[in-house]
Fold this protein.
Amino acid sequence: MNDPQKQGLHVLTIRYPFVVFEQRSWQPFLNIYETEQALVVVVELAGVDPSSLNIDVEAHLVRIRGNRNVRPPDDLRRIDRMEITSGPFHIEIPLNRAVNPQQTESYYQQGLLQIVLPFTRHSTQRVVIKVMDRGQE
């Protein structure tokens, strides 16, 4: 490689897949607000197809799963910067107050997922009390 015009030239293989990335689950940024009637969770999910979202709500836990697929251009020659996380994500949010999963609502707008989790009026915690037989004295 004695050609001075080719010195310092870094060539990427342009075969698909051109780069192999390790698939790790990532976690999106979120805000949690409390109102008088509900907890409101706002999750930053720019570029995520809402139909790929799976939201699981229990009395004290919210699970959100999905996938963001950021595809590079077909005629890619080089990556100068890569900061947008891509691939599957999974987040679990423990709740410090019981919510009513049946009345939960979610909205997706402009890359933000908003989940409204109304508080339950009844305690959903199960308490087991063991009755001790003292016998006759």
